[in-house]
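[SOLVED] Need 3D model of a three-part complex

Original post:
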Amino acid sequence: MSLLKVNNLKVHYPIRGGFFRTVKDHVRAVDGVSFELDKGETYGLVGESGCGKTTTGRAIIGLNSVTEGEIIFEGEDLVSLKHRDRRKYIQDIQMVFQDPYSSLNSRKNVLNIIAEPLRNFERLSPTEELLRVQELVERVGLTPESIYKYPHQFSGGQRQRIGIARALTLNPKLIIADEPVSALDVSVQAQVLNFMQDIQEEFDLTYLFISHDLGIVRHMSDRLGIMHNGRLVEEGTRDDIFENAQHPYTKRLLAAIPEMEPEKRIDKKVLREEVNRLYREQHDAYYSEDGRVYDLQSLTETHSVALQGGAKQ
Amino acid sequence: MIQFILRRSLVMIPQLILLSIIVFFLASAMPGDAVTGAFQNNPNVSPEQEEKIREKFGLNDPWYQQYGRWVSKALQGDLGMSYTHKQPVTVLLKDRLSNTLLLAGVTLLVTYLIAIPLGIIAGRWQDSWADKLIVTYNYVSFATPMFVFALLMLFVFSFQLGWFPIGGSVDIRAEGGTFDYYISKVKHLVLPVLSGALLMTYSTIQYLRNDIIDTKFKDFVKTARAKGVPENHVYTRHILRNSLLPIASFLGYEITGLIGGSIFIETIFSYPGLGQLFLNSIMLRDFQVVTALVMISGAAVIVGTMLSDIILSIVDPRIRID
Amino acid sequence: MKELEQQLLEEKRELMAREKKNNPSFLKVVWREIKSDKVAFISFILLIIILMTAYISPLFIDEASVKRVDPFNIYNSPSADNWLGTDDGGRDVFGQLMLGARNSFTIGIAVTLLAAIYGLTVGLIAGYYGGIVDNIIMRIIDFLMVLPSLMFIIVFVVIVPNYSVASFIFIMSLFSWFGKARLIRSKGLAERELDYINASKTLGTPDWKIMLFEMFPNLSSLVIVNMTLTLAGNIGLETGLTFLGFGLPTGTPSLGTLIALAKNPDVISTKWWVWLPAALLILVMMLSINYVGQAVKRASDARQRLA
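Solution:
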C-alpha cells in the first residue's frame, strides 16, 4: 500500500466581480491531480511557477483548503477528517519551506524554534528538551552553541538546516520539501540536497520534492510528475522522463535546462527551436480547446502522459 | 468608477441604520422620557395621567414600533420637543447650526491655509531651518490638548491683551446687517478658529511633507528635472499635482475632529453653537436635544467619510479595486 | 547525569550571557535612542521628575486636608503656606496639582492598557484569520470609527448607573481601541503571509498560541510605539472630559478639575495660580511623553534611528 495517495485533487479560488461581488469564475490552481507516493521514495513535482505545484503541497499538509478530491495518507482520507482528528497526522507529515528567511521567526532563538513542535506534542522536562534539540542541531551539522542564537546570525544554508531540523523533530514519515534550495546560493544547494538524501535513509523518510529546477529534481527524485496549468501532463520514473519524454511541454522544459559546455550550446539552441515548433504544432493533440490538459493515459507501467483520448503517438 | 461610488454609497445605508438604532437605545437608556420631561415640576399632572399620556403616545409599545415611529418622524424633520426650551428641537438647532457651520467651515479653511504652505515648504526644503521649525511646530501641535490651548489663547489675547472679545458669536449691541455687525462677527471668530485650526494642521502637514519627500526622488520627477524643467515647475506641475489631491480624502477624519473640537471650543469661548447646546442639554438632562445632536453628528461623519472615500477613489484609482 | 546537567547548565548560562550582549533588547535600543536625542532626553528626565514628585508627594500630603473646604481662605494667592495659593473652596492648589497629576497619569495608563488589550485581541484575530473574519471585523471597526466618540463618551458617563472611576476608565477605553486594532490588523495581515506562521501551523501549534507567541512578538515594537503616543492622547482626553465636567467623579481630583475652574471669567483673568499651573503641567507632560514616544518610534525602525 502506498504511503500517500492523492486522488483527483482540486483547489479552486473564487473570482468575484460585478456590483454585488458575486462569484464570477474560479482560478483553478490545482485542477484534478492524482499521484501516489510509496514509502521511502522521493517524488519530484515539477513545473513552471504558477503551475500549482506549491498549492498541491500546501493542500496535502493542510495549509490550503481542498475544493474536491481525496488525500489518502496511510489509508485515511485527510480531506474528510475534522480539524481535530487531523491533528494526529501533523506529526507524520512535515514541511520544509522555500524561504529560509521568512520561515523562521526572527524573534525566537534556535532552541525555541526547534522545540516548538515538541512542546505541542510531547511533555518533556527542560533538560530532556534541551538534549533532544541539541542532538538534532548537531545532526544537521550546526555547532551546539547555535541553539541560543537567533536566525539572523545564520547564513541561508544554515537556516535551511534549522528548518529541516524542526521538521525532523517529530519523526515524520513524509516531508514535503517546497523548493527547499531555490533561495540558496548554488554553492550551498548541493550541500543541503546531499544532506537531505543522507537523512532520508537514516530517518526512513519519504519526500515530496517540489521544484522548478529539473537538474535538481533529477538528482533527488526516483519518480516525478510534470505539472502545467494545475494538472499533471506527464508522470514517470526518472528515466521515463529524462530519456523518453512524451509530452511536448515536458520536452520544452527539458530543452530549457541550461547547457554547461559552450561547444554544445549551438546544438542546444537548435534543439530548443525544434521543440518549440513541435509544441506549437502538437498543441491541439495535448490540450483541449480551452487550454486544459487532458487526463493522464498510461504508456507503460510506470510512464503516463496526458493526451487526447489516450491515442498513442 | 460609478460602480464604486454606488457601492460606497450603499455601505452608508446600513451604517446610518445601525447608528440610528444605537442612538435610539442610548436615548431609551437615558433616565426619563418625553413625558417626564414635559410635565416635570408640574403638580397638576398626576402619575396616573402621565401614564395615560404615555399610552396615548405609544411609549409603552415594543421597541421596534417606537423605533419605527422615531425614525419616520425624524425623516419628516420632527426631532421631538426640548423640554427646557419648550420648543421643537429642529427650531432650536437652526440658529446654532449656522453658527457651528460657520465656525467649522472657517476653521477647516484656515487649517488648510496654514497647513498646505507649511507642508510644502517643509517637504521641498527638507532639513532646512524652516523645515525644522515646522516639524517642531507639528510635534507641539500634535501633543497639545485643544482645551488647554484654547484656554491659554483666551487668557492671553482676550483677558491679558484685550485684543478680542471674551465670548459669544457677535456683539449684542451691533445691528444686524451693518458693517459693524460683520466686523464684530469676524472678531468673535478669530480666537475660536485659531484655537482649532492651529492644532488641526498636524495630519495635513505630516502627510504633505512625507509625500513630497517621497515623490521628490521618484523617477518621473528625476526625468522632468533631467529634461530641464525649472525647479518651480517641477513642483507645481509634477509633485504637487500628485500630493495635494489626497488631502481632500482626510475630510471625514477632519469632521470627526471638528465635532469633538467644537464641544471644547464653543464651551470655552461661550460660542452659541451645537457643541455648546450639546453640553448644556446634557447637563440639564434635556435628552431629546442630546439624541438629535448625536444622531446629526454621527450622520455628518458618515457622510463625510463617504465623500472622502469617493474623492480618494477619483484621485487614486488603485483603491477602487476593493 | 547530575554532572552533565550541571555542565550543561553552566554552558547555557555562559552562552546566554554572551548572546544577550549580541542581541540588545528593544528597551536597550530605546534607551540608546533617547540618550542620543537631546530633546527626548530632557523630556525623559522631566517626565521622571514630574512623575516621581506626583507619585511620591501624595505620601506626604494629607489628602483629607487637601480636600477639606476652608471658607475663610478662598482664592488666596501663592504664599509660603500654599505654594500655589488656594482655590474656590480654600483648598491648597499645589496639593491638588500633585494628586491630580498622579490620578490623571494613572488613569491614562489604565485606559491605554485596557484599550491595548481590546485592540490587540481584535486586531490579532482579524489579521491572523484574514478573509471573511477580517472582513466582518473591519466593517464593524469602520463603523465604530465614524462615531463621534467624544459625544458618546459624554452620553455614557451621564447614563451609566453608579458612576465611578472604574466605570470612567472602562467607558474611555471602550472608545479608544479602534485605531489600534486597525493598525495591528494591517501589520498582522502582512505577517500571516510569511512562512514562519505557516510553519507553526504545520507543526501543530494551536491558533491562539501562534497569534500570541509567534505573531505578537513581531508586532510588539509597533504596539509599544502606539501605546506611548496614545498615552499622551488619553491623558489629554481625560483631563479634557474632567474639564467639561464629564470626567472623574467629584472628589477625585484630576488636572482637569483645576483647569475647569477657569471656566469662571474671574478666575481665568485674575486668579492665574488656580488653573495655569495645571494647564502648563499638562502641556509639559504631553510634550515630554510625545518626544519620548517619537524616540521609541525611531528605535523601532532601524532606518530612522539616530543612535
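Edit: The longest strand of chain A covers residues 22-37.
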